[in-house]
What we know:
Bound molecules: manganese (II) ion
Strand content: 5-15%
Amino acid sequence: MSHFDESPAPTRNLAEQEAALASAASFAHLLSKLDYLEAADIELVRSAYRLADAAHAGQKRQTGEPYITHPIAVAEQCTVWRLDASAIIAALLHDTMEDCGVSKTDIAEKFGGAVADLVDGLTKLDKIQFATKEESQAESFRKMLLAMARDVRVILVKLADRIHNMRSLHLMKREKRERIARETMDIYAPLANRLGINSMRMELEDLAFQYIAPDAYNDLTAKIVKSNEARNRYTEEVKNIIQQEMEKYSVACKVEGRAKHLYSIYKKMHEQHINFDEVYDLIAFRIILDADKEKSCYEVLSIVHALWKPVPGRFKDYIAMPKANNYKSLHTTVIGPYGERVEIQI
Ligand code: MN
């Protein structure tokens, strides 16, 4: 990086000063999320930021922001999962090998072999390109899983990278947008699901859905906005009924009702050949018990089934048979207070 050291200190123009301020502000925000790391590790993160900032100097994102705000945002997503210092550093450096000619040796010397391997793994994942769609899906999925078997942090940083890029996908060229959205739907959303990060799966699916089937997406969004108020009232009502019934039997629990994400509603309409007005279970209700109360879940189930008639064939026992990602719960669908189908997870 000799050209950074040798050049005389340049006078910065206004745009450069603004970019520097924006970068510093977003790094300060990242720092505020790092309190779970040791002081020495935070120093390493600072030094990774300085390296990435110098390497990406002058580059801009499609949004017009300085490029460095992207790796910072990726690192910040990693702090939500409380990933270790190596992963945070790799997130900050994840685009430096590809775009800025920083070498694996440079990174290994400054941050150790583990970080260098992570950044290298991330760079390699980016380079996978395939001739056909089928090949692309099967092959890159296989490579991902291989990489994951070696170090799951590579996949987590990659997911953080993907979600940040998906959030600004509208600024990309149409053709690129569709390819990335398709890849997100086929590969990254299922990976997030496999790792048990459900909130990320839903956001990835909804973001990708928007570009894969824009008409259906807009249509559905408009209908949901229109029915919003009535739906909120309905949600409160059902929640209250469940809550009261649980109190009657002295079951300590929390009841939640939340709108399902758009893509799952769309899938349901598509698979069952029904239109929006026929999708009754737009809201998934959850009855949440403490982790050590697995047996009580069955008791809660019997209370719910005594209150509202269950729909035959809709009961699933993920406590006896947990999902591959170790998700444990009981799912049932019942006929609710208005004769509508209500989906309940316990
Ligand atoms: Mn990136």
